[in-house]
Every structure is written in structure tokens, then in C-alpha cells.
Amino acid sequence: MTVNSVDTTYREAVREAIREALLGDERVFLMGEDVGHYGGCFAVSKGLLAEFGPERIRDTPLSELAFVGAGIGAALGGLRPIVEIMTVNFSLLALDPILNTAATLCHMSGGQFPVPVVIRMATGGGKQLAAQHSHSLEGWFAHIPGLVILVPATIDDARWMLGWALKRPDPVLIFENQTLYNRKGTLQETGAGNPLQARVRRSGRDITLLTYGASLYKALEAAEQIALKGIELEVLDLRALRPLDETTIMESIARTHRVLIVDEGWRSGGISAELSARVMERAFFELDAPVRRICTEEVPLPYAAQLELAALPQVSKIVAVAEQMVSKHG
Amino acid sequence: MSTDSSASQSPLPPAEISRDLLRQMLRVRRFEEECVPQYQAGKIRGFLHLYVGEEAVAVGVISQLQLKDAVVGTYREHGHALVRGVSARAIMAEMFGKQEGCARGRGGSMHLFDAATRFYGGNAIVGGGLPLAVGLALAEKELQRGGVAVCFFGEGAVAEGAFHESLNLASLWKLPVLFVCENNHYAMGTPERIELAGQGVCAKAEVHGVRARSVDGMDVAAVWQAAGAALAEARSGQPVLLECNTYRFRAHSMFDAELYRERSEVQAWERRDPVACFLARLESAGVVKKSEWEVWQQEVNAEIAAAVAYADAGTEEPAADLLRFVYAEEEAR
Ligand SMILES: Cc1ncc(C[n+]2csc(CCOP(=O)(O)OP(=O)(O)O)c2C)c(N)n1
């Protein structure tokens, strides 16, 4: 272990990011349900109340609409709030302030009132939490101009994206897939670069696989397996869903000429549809095969393990589709 | 609802203030009246909600504010912006969709903004301004700037979850916020009696630990007095709600056949016209002379005419600028 390389978890990386922000800027505070006394519903903010006190680690009542709106107001008033919503499912009770206020105010006021608020929330399924605690709605939020949507998949991104977000004058939403919090790894960098740039997490010549969040690890596992059969996936971690880094995406397609999208969101009208459309618009003549998508099946996510497994994108499915893509059109 | 809430029992504010209150109400009244022909001429488009009849509320409250205070309004907010210090011409230009407008023509009538006077809009989501005001008040408290956030909303907003969540939060956190309910007794065409159960707006505030008072919103002196006291409390960290009983003389917006109320009811309230009644009171108290009032009218008419001319002469932002300000153009500080 060197100074620049620490064994840690995704959870601890997020906590360190919050700590650093609190230490570095007096205007920063964390607020949300159970962030203080409880330590965060995913234990992200454990210990922070003792270290920073109740004004900077602010437990809120169960009022998503009011505390998200208040976070926006506090940002307008000169503070730098980190608003935590327990999970994306509850963010629906705060859609109004997020869309009608945070995303509109800068433009609607002719640039007078930018909204430097950061809103973090857990997202995603895979833990048998059923249909009101498992959905992946980050693609919906990516529909909204005025927002920046970050989807940190790696420990480095969990650690470094928050600081970047807090320096932005615009509302930034950070989606942390709940299956990632326990993920162990090594924090290597002293920064993760510009979060708006997609990253090639594995190079390969045959298929560009576009993904983000927890699906990144399924994609990497699939790439590992299929490499044994001589098929090389180039796995791109999007890192941001708005804006989309079309440059990196199109550069990769120019090398592979095939695109497979893996998204834990639903397929209809989702971010995978958007990605596919952009590929058609910008790289149609590069393609050797139709764009393929693996998304969550179009059901409310069920509780039973085998059903949930069947609903979510899985490694085996990625391998199967990738094989089809090269064999049919190769 | 009754129209006869112990009219004109309130003590008069000092002469200079009384005169200013009257003059400000006149500005709002004339501004709103001028919007009608401008709307009919197609210069003002979109939704247009007039504040005629309710002037005493914005004037009474905002006249008590300090520069450091923050204001959050609704879509019926021309008067609030005007009294707060946004120029008539910047507001009119905004409604004409010109880039000289106070939001560069991107907001229109319902979304007036002005950073210089801490005027945070112009919010067209019923109840949408309340959480925002709570957050602005939180910033005042944490940054120890001593300002108050003042939030205007109608009684219709009291039925929204945002109202209850916001008051609960403001009360828990002891925030310097003044909630001003402009109770004009109708939410579009829905009368208060089929909108709000229970014992009224103040009772709903009090269950959240927010002190609440009802005041005659047709009497600018009463509003001014009550707002002064409420602001002092709010500034010390005790959120307060002021319910101002008032009435809108005109339709909800320009698309409203007013099927839901009797002409006689409107007329009864018109007899309590906040501008005319206060003028009569100040005249009989010798605070304002008829000749002065006439001069003021001319001055205000000139101000509004100049605003219209300015808005007319205003320029259109090129469509090439459409995407500006979706994201901030300056780095955050
Ligand atoms: C959340 C929401 N629901 C519905 C509307 C449509 N709407 C606009 S104004 C209004 C009535 C609001 O009444 P009130 O709050 O009493 O204010 P007033 O118009 O009387 O000033 C309604 C229903 C809206 N703008 N926002």
C-alpha cells in the first residue's frame, strides 16, 4: 500500500468524499432522512454526525418534497448542500422541485439564479427489495435539460465525483447503485478526471459495450468469459448520463463497428433508447450489425430471487447476445 | 366569507409611511390595469394573473422588508416585484418577451426574477415556492446574515403537501421565514369551503408549531402593522404565518368566465377596495391632499406609460441564444 493507493469500499469512498467536502468548505452540509443519528440507510454517513455536528449532518423529517426543495433554496442562498434521498424510488416525491425548480431556474431567470445543489441517491435492484425499492430511474432524470447526471461505478468515481459536483454551479444528481456500496477495491488515484468523459474500462476490437453503474461489473465479467471464445468486448463506462460523452462513444464504435448497450433501466423510452438513437445519428455507416440492447425486463421488479434474476440484465445474457452479434454478422 | 372584518380599525402608520403605502398600491393597481389592454393587443401572451384587489397584501408586507431579505412569490407576482424594487419597465419588458425584461424574456408574467432585489420568482407550481423559501431561510440562518425569507402563496397552496412539509421543516429548524397566505377565498373556481377542511389556515400552521395570525388583507395599515411584528419574530428564528384575508376583483386569469361567484359578492368586496378606502382614510386624516393624489396619479401613469414604451422598444433575444443559461455560464463561487 502506498500513499496513493488505499484498500477501501465504495461506501467508504463516498463517505470520504463527503468528509473532504465538509472539511474543505464551511458552506457544505449533508441533509436527508437518517443521515445523522442512524448513520445513513446504507451507512454511508456513519460517524459524520459525531464529527461535524447536527447543523452540518442534518437529519430531515420524511418530507422529500420539502427537504429537496429546501436544499435548492439553500443553494440559492449561498450554501452548498449535499441532499441525500434514501433511494431513487422516493425521489418521485421530490420530482417537482428537481424538475420544476432546480432544472429550470437558471434558464428561466435568464442566468440570474444558477442552482449549485448536489443530490445523491441510491438506485438499482438485485437485492430482493421488490417493486418499490429496486428501480433504476436515472435514465428518466437524464431526460431533463438543466441537470447533470452522474453514475459512479468505480471506487475512484465514488470518491472523486462528489467534489467535482460541488464545484459546479448547476444541479448535479449522483446515482449510487445500492449493490456497489460493499464493493471492495483500491483507491488509486488522487482524482478521477473529468466525470463527463466516458472511460474505456476494458479494450477490445469486436463490440463496443456501453454501460454504467452496477452493470459495468456484469459487462466486465461477460467480457472475461467471452474472451475465452476469442470475442473481444470493449467496455465503456459512461460515468455521466447527461451530458453523454458522444466523442468517446463514437471513437470506440469506429474501432469495433458493433454496439451492445446494457442498462438496468427499462428499455422503452429509456437511456438505452437514447444511446441507440445517437449511434444511428452519428455512426450509422460505421455499423456492421444492428445495435442490441439488454435492459431490465418490462415489469415492476419482483421479490422472488429467480424472478428478479430473470428481470435484470445478467452476465449469461450479455455473453449470449454478444456471441450472436459477431456470429450472425461477423 | 364575510367582507366586513372590522374595517379601518387599525392605527395609521406614520404619515410618510402611510403616504408611501398608498402610492405603492396605486403603482400596483395601475400596472395591473395596464396589463389588460396590453394583453388584449397581443403584446402580453401566455397566462396573465392580475392582483387587482389584493394590493394591500404585497404592499403592506414588502414595505416592511430589508434589502437583505429574500422574496418568493407566485404566478400572481407583478405587484410583489414592483414593490420590491424591480422596475416597472423591466417587468413589462419581461411580459412582452423582450431581452430587456427581468428574466430576459424567458419567464414571462409568471416568472419574474431579480437577483439585485433577491426576488426569487415567480413560481407557477402551486405550493412550489414554500420549500424554496425554507431553504433560503436556512441559508440566512447558517450564514448568519440576519435576513428573512418571505413566501407568498394562496390558500389553494395550503391543501398541498408542500405547505405542510415546509411548515414542519421551518418549525423544526427554527428558520427565519415568513409565510404569507394571500387568502382570496378562491383557488381558480374552487371556493375555500370545498378546498380546506378544519379550522382554517392559521390552525393548520399552528399544528406545525408555526405562529399564525389572521389580518384584514384589504387594509394596508393592518397588514403593514402585522407584517412588522411577524417579521421581527421571524428574524429571531420563529417562523410565522400571516393570513391576509383579501379578494381578487378580477378573473383568476385571462381565461376565466367567472362562473363560480356572484357579481354581488364581487361588488360587496369592491366596496372595500384597498386603494380607495386607504385614500379616503388618509384624506380625512389630512395625510394626503386631493391635489397630491392627482399628481401621484399622473406620475404613476407616466411611469407605466414609460414602461410600456420601453417594453415596446425592447429587443428580441436571437434564437441562437436559445440554449444559453440551461447551465450556468459562470463557474460557481
Ligand atoms: C401544482 C399545481 N396544481 C394546479 C395548478 C393550476 N392552478 C394554477 S393557479 C391555481 C389556483 C391556486 O389558487 P390559490 O393558491 O388560492 O392562489 P390564487 O390563484 O387564488 O392567487 C391552480 C389550481 C398549478 N399551477 N400548480
Can you describe what's shown?
The complex is a heterodimer of chains A (330) and B (333). Chain A has 330 residues and is α/β, with parallel strands linked by helices. Chain A folds into 2 domains: 5-188, Thiamin diphosphate (ThDP)-binding fold, Pyr/PP domains (Rossmann fold, 3-Layer(aba) Sandwich), CATH 3.40.50; 199-326, Rossmann fold, CATH 3.40.50. Chain A has helices at 10-24, 48-52, 64-76, 88-91, 95-102, 105-108, 138-141, 155-167, 215-227, 246-256, 271-283, 305-311, 315-329, and strands at 6-9, 28-32, 57-59, 80-87, 118-123, 148-150, 172-177, 184-187, 199-202, 207-211, 233-237, 240-242, 259-266, 292-296. In chain A, strands 3-2-4-5-7-6-12 form a 7-stranded mixed β-sheet, sandwiched between helices. A 5-stranded mixed β-sheet of chain A has the order 9-11-10-13-14, with helices on both faces. Chain A has a two-stranded antiparallel ribbon with strand order 1-8. In chain A, strand 10 (207-211), helix 9 (215-227) and strand 11 form a beta-alpha-beta unit. The radius of gyration of chain A is 20 Å and the shape is globular. The model of chain A has no long low-confidence stretch (mean pLDDT 96). Chain B is an alpha/beta fold and 333 residues long. Chain B has one domain (15-316): Thiamin diphosphate (ThDP)-binding fold, Pyr/PP domains (Rossmann fold, 3-Layer(aba) Sandwich), CATH 3.40.50.970. In chain B, 42% of the residues lie in helices and 10% in strands. Chain B is built from 11 helices and 7 strands. Chain B has a 5-stranded parallel β-sheet with strand order 1-2-3-7-6, with helices on both faces. In chain B, helix 1 (15-40) packs across helix 3 (78-84) and helix 4 (88-95) packs across helix 11. The longest helix of chain B is centred in the N-terminal third of the chain and has 26 residues, at 15-40. Thiamine diphosphate binds next to strand 2 and strand 4 of chain B.
